[in-house]
Structure formats: C-alpha cells, structure tokens
Design brief:
The chain is mainly alpha-helical and 176 residues long. The chain contains seven helices and three strands; from the N terminus they run βββααααααα. Strands 2-1-3 form a three-stranded antiparallel β-sheet.
Length: 176
C-alpha cells in the first residue's frame, strides 16, 4: 500500500499514427516502424500555462496561414517550450528569435510568449512566401538564415540546420 501512495510524476506520452494504403489509420504508443509518425507532439514543461501557449499558437498560426502543428513542432525544437530560453548564439524565447531578427520584426520583448510566437509565426510566413511555400527551405532559412538558403539554392550543408529540419519533421508528423 505504501508504494501506491508514492507520487509518480506524469509525463507526456507520444501517440504515433500510420495510414496504410487502404486508408486505415493505425495508432500506437510504441513506434514499431519508421512509418509511424508522431500524431500530435505537444510536450510543455511543468509550470508553463499549457492552455495559454496552445491558444497563442493556434491564434498566431491561423493569423499567418500556418499549420498550428508546424508551429508547435518548431517551438518544441527551438526552446522546449521554455519561455525564457536563450541559446548559446543569443536566440531568445519560445521561437528562439535572434536579436537582429527581433529588431527587424519590431519584437521588443522576446520573453513575452504571445509576442514571441506572433513574431516567429510572422517570420515563418515571410520565409514561406520567399521560398515559394517550400516548408523545408523555410525551416532551413529559419535556422540558418534566408541568405544561406538563397546562396546555396537549397538547404545549406550545415549539420545543425539539417538536424533542425529533421527534428521539426519528426514532431510535425508530416512530410516536409
């Protein structure tokens, strides 16, 4: 009985899905093959206002014509949903916006969750427009900068950028 009274911390459980050739959707909590992709991956650290962050993502993604699942995946990869995250290179907030980009976007407080998600979503929309709606190139530009993508005419041969795209893709659960 004593063991039952010990609190077990809750943790997010990823649900994977696969649609077979006949159109049947299969769901599981164990990724048995690479065909199974995360269904809706949304891990937010304890203490964060989950409903508020989800609502902001849905609102801003809708405003800029983005899939909320894509923005959610980006936030998870960029900051792990840590509102006050700062990268070693100086990127800040949920969507890890560099100070120069924040200035261009007129983002005054990168640690304001709503303003950071709005600016990051707006920036992603600009990148999608610039790169003809190609999500892979827009993600590469979000990570490495649009100039790097334009110079090489595709995804730059930068391991961090390639890894970023793959991490977002894995969490997004859709082909990009």
């Amino acid at each position: 009985m004593a063991l039952l009274s010990v609190g077990i911390p809750a943790r997010a459980q990823t649900i994977y899905h696969y649609q077979d050739p006949s159109g049947t959707v299969h769901l599981t909590d164990i990724q048995t093959t690479s065909e199974y992709r995360p269904f809706f991956y949304f891990r937010i650290p304890k203490g964060a206002d989950r409903a508020q962050i989800a609502a902001i993502i849905i609102k801003e993604a809708g405003r800029y014509g983005l899939d909320p699942s894509l923005v959610t995946a980006m936030v998870e990869v960029e900051s792990g949903f840590q509102v006050r995250a700062v990268s070693p290179k100086g990127a800040q907030g949920l969507m890890q916006i560099m100070p120069g980009t924040a200035q261009d976007l007129k983002l005054k407080d990168s640690f304001d969750a709503a303003k950071n998600i709005e600016a990051g979503s707006r920036y992603m929309r600009q990148l999608l427009d610039r790169f003809g709606g190609n999500v892979r190139l827009a993600l590469a530009a979000y990570n490495a900068g649009p100039g790097a993508v334009s110079r090489c005419g595709g995804v730059p041969n930068i391991s961090e950028t390639k890894s970023y795209i793959e991490k977002v893709k894995a969490r997004y659960g859709k082909a990009i």
